[in-house]
Amino acid sequence: MSDSSYKERVISFRISLIVATFLILGYLAVTVLLSNQQELRTIIIDIYNEIFQLLATFSLFYGAYHSKGYGKRVQTAWIVLALAQLSFAIGDIGFAYYDIYHGEVPYPSLADPPALIFPM
Question: Any alpha helices (H) in 1-120, and if so which ranges?
């Protein structure tokens, strides 16, 4: 694999940093600007959390895909981390569903098993 073909496939650090900065600034803006509109703030923050969870999942799968050259054990480790993060994201989607549509999260709920698979 040549260096030029590798550089074309990899997402640049600069672009990743810009996207992360905008996401964090947007999250902070929502937190500050909607401080007295609790219901709307909860909905937007739940959606932001899902975006963060799914981006982390995508990033781990991306790392697993590009770690092929380092050996099967390294790639397997990345895949296990990505699946754990995906499981947590699924649980968080269930939590957001209960939080947004029902106003509270029952215990126990269907969102608990996927979230519990995630190793802390």
Answer: 3-9, 13-33, 38-66, 72-97, 112-117
Q: Does residue 54 contact residue 97 with C-beta atoms inside 8 Å?
A: no
56: DSSP letter: H
d(C-alpha 120, C-alpha 105), whole Å: 21
Tens of pLDDT along 57-88?
Answer: 998 998 898 888 888 999 999 999 999 899 88
pTM beyond cutoff 0.85: no
Number of domains in the chain: 1
The token pair at 29 is 């803006």
Ramachandran angles phi, psi of 110, nearest 5°: -70, -15
